[in-house]
Amino acid sequence: MLREETVFGPIFSRRLGSSLGINLLPEKGKICNFDCIYCECGWNRDGRDDTVLPTAEKVRNDLGCMLQKLEKENIPVDSITFSGDGEPTINPEFPQIIDDTLSLRDQYYPSAKVSVLSNATRVHIPEIFNALCKVDNPIMKIDAPTNELASKINNPAPGYDVQRVIEALKQFKGNFVLQTCMLRSPDFDSSCPEVVGPMMDIVRLLRPREWMVYTIDRPTPMQGLQKFSPQEMKALVQPVIDEGFTKVQIKGAVEDM
């Protein structure tokens, strides 16, 4: 179970390279409007000891100090990544924090990308969407094409609706990255035609500039989950690869493709 400081790393990311993380949730707790069965941070119920969210001022100070230190030590940073222990857009100062981060990035590591890993549940809120449009990599998650399957994989808070998320993501006009986790459990299988087919239809509709398809790589809170090999995932999404309208990045637990 991870409990991240406000600014942590940099760590090597399968998807983003040398990634300096920003956690906009509590340092000793977990707050998220999803409770994914594969979340490396554990269940929400196990992270309720701390509910204090970092302020924009704290994030700005911590990030500035870290970037200054890394620059002085000549440590590379490929991405400044909003991830941490839950959904980053929940932080009420998210838009201001994005502006501050972009300014600090430009000062210390102008070639680094700013990335946001989000479950896309708040993209329909104008100020959240506008903030996400400013970053280099708005990486939005859809793991399931139906509400029924999303309830099994993501355990979303009440009110989640896949179609509303899809409609909100249309605002990007393709200028975003879609990410999808593929896995098996005793209750479902991401490789079933009734899952893979509709997921590819969502990709065809949204036409993201990139589709990241990955699988579990670390211990998960739910037992009995099974990962896919990169070869299996590539075969499943081959039709979209063949169509060539978007980059498909396959990230496996053992090797990347």
Average pLDDT works out at 92
H/I helix tally: 8
- Strand residue content: 15-25%
* Helicity level: 25-40%
Task: Output the structural class.
Answer: alpha/beta
Kindly report how far apart the N and C termini lie.
28 Å
- Mind describing the biggest β-sheet? 8 strands, mixed
Dominant shape: globular
- Stretches where pLDDT is under 50 for at least 5 consecutive residues are 253-257
Rg: 18 Å
- Counted beta strands: 8
**Strand order of the main beta sheet, please?**
1-2-3-4-5-6-7-8
Order of SSEs:
EEHEHEHEHHEHEHHE
What would you note in describing this structure?
The protein is of the alpha/beta class and 257 residues long. It contains eight helices and eight strands, in the order ββαβαβαβααβαβααβ. α2 runs parallel beside α3. The longest helix has 17 residues, at 56-72. Residues 253-257 have low confidence and may be disordered.
SSE blueprint:
Elements: E1 7-13, E2 17-22, H1 56-72, E3 79-82, H2 94-108, E4 113-118, H3 126-134, E5 137-141, H4 147-153, H5 162-169, E6 177-181, H6 193-206, E7 210-214, H7 230-236, H8 238-243, E8 247-251
Parallel strand pairs: 2-3, 3-4, 4-5, 5-6, 6-7, 7-8
Antiparallel strand pairs: 1-2
Helix pairs in contact: 1-2, 2-3
